[in-house]
Amino acid sequence: MRGRKLEFKIQNLSLDMGETSFENMFLNTYVPMADGDSLKLFLLVYKDLKNEGSVDLEKIKKQLLFDDEKLEKCLNYWVNMGVFRKKDKGNGEYFYEIISLRQLYFGESKNEDSSSMLDISKRKSVMFDSVERIIQRKLTPQDIRRIQETLDEYKQDPELVTEAFRQAKEINNVDVKYVMGFLKTWRDQSIFSLNDLKIKEEREKLLRQKQSKKNIRKKIFTSKNKNSANKSFSQKAREERFRRILEGDDR
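The structure corresponding to this sequence follows.
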């Protein structure tokens, strides 16, 4: 098979027995990294939810030949990866919610017009792509959720996230929690857009230049005063020597 270009085609179906669609973002992110047992569990749970609206875990356990321990391990895997969200019903019972990666990427729609939502969605898509290139790995749902929640809480532009990761990369620490500290610091400084950050950096640059010039002038002034003092002392010494010569008291 090495060196051969293999082609694949989907057969046209004459009988529809049902299909289940999956988000491409899930397939691209988790199929390469998930272990086989956890992936099998997810696929069957997702299929049942999509097609039947409910899940029979006992049936799935029999299909996969899982015992209770293995089932719990696979469920916890997806919870830890942020794909399953464990939620309390309020009566001492709980259920699992399968999150949407698209929803995580683009956030909730909250009474914004469609053109505005489309713009922010495109900018967030660019942001996440840029961040993944910077950190050289796929963002996990936990990463995405943390970034999304930080943006929503601080009301900042997506471009600031990209800049935060770029700066963090320069100091070799791209841990998402650490990078979100950049956004908090900027929020505290009333920085909500990349333009705000550039203005702040330009002001700091001008202040440094101004301080540098001030220090240079101070050094020059100090040097002149020192030279003047030395010159004044030398002049007085010469005048005193000349006076002694005139008085015939030069020793």
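The longest helix spans residues 194-246.
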